[in-house]
Design brief:
Elements: H1 9-32, H2 38-43, H3 50-61, H4 64-77, H5 83-109, H6 114-122, H7 125-157, H8 164-182, H9 184-213, H10 216-225, H11 238-255, H12 259-267, H13 271-281, H14 284-287, H15 289-302, E1 310-311, E2 314-315, H16 321-330, H17 334-375, H18 381-405, H19 410-421, H20 425-429, H21 439-458, E3 463-464, E4 467-468, H22 469-488
Antiparallel strand pairs: 1-2, 3-4
Length: 494
């Protein structure tokens, strides 16, 4: 996104109208609020129907990482990054391991955050705080990546007339306003629009990519004929296979326990709607992640020397392959030009829908699990709701600063947060099914897993024989928890 696309005034007006319409949705959601309490603000009154729930799940799961990060990673690594289709599918499979049971418990006990389940199940405030802090860190990391993408996207759309920092600040303010007005309703309703736009954008991308650059077999043939790109179509070696499996487990297990995903489970109107939404989500990797892979492959074949080129900002990163593809399409016809406008509006939609969901979850956990339960357990719902809104605004300041300061790639940010978030997996996955796992053993396992992971990262061993440090930490963590379960030999039969 560092290379500017030739968007004219008409395109900029179209995108501006779209962004401003989000404020209108936020105001409408504000008018639809029924109660001034945490359940209504952060969970939309637990009343999301199938269409809204599916689209908000979709828009939250697929972000700027999907369009920019996945296509860029495929450009760098070739066919081996087909792993993204597998780990995005694995997320849905992992949902099914705990989401139905968690939904039932949330209805019975009025859970608001993942920390509520943790406390209900283990009766430990210490464990609740530990899990909350890990999740807040992971989401802050995630939001940082989305904010950076917003800034670079807006700079590209405006042809540099709007600098990156202004794009980050401006779109952050838009998100803050509509989120503060309507809470989860605003986020879910805007996600529905953004998710729909994202689906349309991916379908358009698929058609344009094939018509402009030919078929995937042709791209593979070009890659094979070039000694510099031949490695991009070679099958992975043993280390690569282990890395593939490790990455699927890392993302599949970790993304399913995103706090914003868990809160959407809580927000479903009934169990049937939740199951239908998750079943539909199983098909989305073929429309989204796979399209990003095809873009990366096509551009690797047709523009193999991209990373050796320079712009006014320095070397051109691989994440700009989507921009490069769109630039060529725009030059062909007016029709292609407006299709690219729709695609980039979809990109903004993808990033904003993910960022606003993460931000809402962070504020709910800090407000409810840390402030409310620890410091002000006697506070009324109206007070906590006001505090949650204030925290959202305060949080945005360091997130915007960090987004502007960070210079790494998006996939690296994705990996870092999962290495730590995945350590919460036993507490949730086993907790919904096992009645014999104690808080003490969960804390012991979680602490051991975090320690192993952080030591490996500190030693610059992010992978050991192709296996991510977070997976190694999880193995230690899981072994401790399973040993406790086997010792007590007691499982829920439901």
């Amino acid at each position: 996104m560092t290379e500017f696309l030739p968007f004219g005034p008409g395109a900029l007006i179209f995108i501006a109208i779209y962004v401003l319409s989000l404020l209108g949705i936020g105001f409408y959601a504000y008018k639809q609020r029924q109660k001034n309490n945490m359940q209504d603000f952060f969970l939309a009154g637990r009343n999301l129907g199938f269409t809204i729930l599916f689209l908000t799940l979709y828009a939250t799961q697929y972000s700027g990482n999907t369009l920019l990060g996945f296509s860029g990673a495929t450009y760098r690594n070739g066919l081996s990054f087909l792993v993204c289709v597998h780990f995005m599918t694995a997320i849905v499979v992992c949902y099914l391991l705990f989401a139905p049971q968690l939904y039932r418990l949330s209805r019975e006990n009025q859970f608001l955050t993942p920390g509520d389940f943790i406390y209900h199940r283990y009766q430990s405030q210490a464990l609740r705080i530990l899990v909350t802090l890990i999740m807040v860190y992971a989401l802050a990391n995630f939001t940082l990546a989305q904010m950076r993408t917003l800034g670079t996207a807006f700079a590209g759309i405006s042809q540099g007339r709007v600098p990156m920092w202004a794009g980050v600040v401006g779109l952050a303010l838009v998100m803050l306003v509509y989120e503060s007005l309507g809470g989860m309703r605003s986020v879910a309703w805007t996600d529905a629009i953004q998710g729909g736009m994202l689906l349309v954008g991916f379908i358009i991308l698929m058609g344009l990519a094939f018509s402009q650059f030919g078929s995937i077999p042709d791209a593979i043939e070009k890659l094979a004929s070039n000694p510099e790109t031949l490695h991009k179509i070679k099958p992975p070696d043993g280390d690569g296979v282990r890395n593939w499996i490790s990455f699927v487990l890392l993302v599949g297990l970790g993304a399913a326990i995103y706090p914003q995903a868990i809160q959407r489970v809580y927000s479903a109107r009934n169990a049937g709607i939740l199951k239908r939404s998750l079943a539909t989500m199983a098909f989305m990797p073929l429309i989204t992640a796979l399209v990003s892979v095809m873009i990366g492959l096509l551009m690797a074949a047709h523009l193999p020397d991209l990373e050796r080129q320079f712009s006014s900002n320095g070397p051109i990163p691989s994440e700009t392959v989507l921009t490069q593809m769109c630039l060529q399409i725009m030059q062909q016809s007016a029709f292609g030009y407006w299709l690219v406008v729709i695609i980039f509006a979809s990109l903004l939609a993808a990033v904003m829908s993910t960022a606003d969901s993460a931000l809402l979850s962070i504020s709910s956990m800090i407000t409810h699990d840390l402030y409310g339960q620890t410091f002000r357990p006697d506070a009324d719902q109206a007070h906590l709701t006001r505090v949650g809104k204030c925290i959202t605004w305060i949080l945005m300041i360091p997130l915007v600063w960090a987004a502007l300061a960070y210079e790494g790639n998006l996939i690296q940010l994705l990996k870092i947060k999962f290495e730590l978030l995945i350590q919460c997996v036993p507490a949730i996955y086993l907790g919904v099914h096992s009645k014999s796992l104690s808080a003490r053993m969960v804390i012991t396992g979680l602490a051991a897993g975090l320690t192993v992971t952080l030591i490996l990262i500190a030693l610059d061993w992010s992978r050991v024989s192709g296996i991510h440090s977070g997976i190694i930490g999880l193995a230690v963590n899981l072994a401790i928890c399973l040993a406790a379960i086997v010792k007590n030999r007691s499982f829920y039969t439901d």
